[in-house]
Amino acid sequence: MLFISTDEGSSFQRQSISFTPDTLVFHPKEEDKLLAYCKEGMLFASTDLGRKWTLLQERVTKDKVF
């Protein structure tokens, strides 16, 4: 589960997700875009601040996510 804020932390919404993220990486300029790596070796992407996720790649190692 993720907690998402669209008002700089004044309030949060709970967002269920179908995987357990190990690492979250935010885009340096586009704050709605992020990557999520899970220990099962899968890499997911979101373009809407974590509301919907797309599987990008399987068999990914953590040291290859940046």
Set down the secondary structure blueprint.
Layout: E1 2-4, E2 13-15, E3 21-26, E4 34-38, E5 42-46, E6 54-57
Antiparallel strand pairs: 1-2, 3-4, 4-5, 5-6
Question: What would your notes on this structure say?
Answer:
Pfam families: Sortilin-Vps10. This is Sortilin N-terminal domain-containing protein. Residues 2-62 form the Sortilin N-terminal domain. InterPro entries: Sortilin_N, VPS10-sortilin, WD40/YVTN_repeat-like_dom_sf. With 66 residues, the protein is an all-beta fold. Helix content is 0%, strand content 39%. The chain is built from no helices and six strands. It has strands at 2-4, 13-15, 21-26, 34-38, 42-46, 54-57. The strands form two sheets. The chain has a four-stranded antiparallel beta sheet with strand order 3-4-5-6, with no helix packed on it. A two-stranded antiparallel ribbon has the order 1-2. Strand 4 and strand 5 form a beta hairpin. It is globular, with a radius of gyration of 12 Å.
Q: Indicate the structural class.
A: mainly beta
Which parts are unreliable, with pLDDT below 50 for 5 consecutive residues or more? none
What kind of sheet is the major sheet?
A: 4 strands, antiparallel
Oligomer: single chain
Number of helices: 0
Count every beta strand, where a strand is a DSSP E run of 2 or more residues.
Answer: 6
Shape: globular
Give the SSE order as H and E letters: EEEEEE
Q: What portion of residues is helical?
A: under 10%
Strand order of the largest sheet: 3-4-5-6
| Residue share in β-strands | 35-45%
Alpha-carbon Rg, integer: 12 Å
What is the typical, i.e. mean, pLDDT? 90
How far apart are the termini? Answer: 22 Å
Pfam families: Sortilin-Vps10 (PF15902)
Organism: Pogonophryne albipinna
Keywords: Repeat
Protein name: Sortilin N-terminal domain-containing protein
